[in-house]
Amino acid sequence: MSKHKKNVGEYTDMKKLAEDIGDLHYETLEDFMGHLAVKFNKDASADSKRGRKELSIALRRAGHHVSTAWMNIRDAWSISKPFMKE
Predict the structure, then answer these.
(1) What average pLDDT score do residues 52-62 get?
(2) Which pLDDT score is estimated for 55?
């Protein structure tokens, strides 16, 4: 049995999950994106140690791209922060 889940909590509709994640407050989204990038890089390291070179490379690339997205969300948060109500 795979340790990889097909659902997230009660979410079975990935489009709905993507919409809800995209609707998160930018500060929360920034935090989420940072953790996701770290997770991909952690998995890449583990797969590299298991000799899964191609998978490791793909996950490192994903981690890199998510890190880039994280930086963009961080910028969006900085830009929007003065306009956000507490």
Answers:
(1) 97
(2) 97
Q: Which residue has the tokens 């995209």?
A: 22
End-to-end CA, the chain: 45
Neighbours of 33 (CB within 10 A): 21
Tokens coding 67:
């890190």
The pTM score is 0.86
> What residue ranges do the domains of the chain occupy?
22-83
Q: What sign does the CA torsion over 12, 15, 20, 26 have?
A: positive
Q: What is the 3-state secondary structure (H, E, C) of the chain?
A: CCCCCCCECCECCHHHHHHHHHCCCHHHHHHHHHHHHHHHHHHHHHHHHCCCHHHHHHHHHHHHHHHHHHHHHHHHHHHHHHHCCC
51 residue type, one letter: G
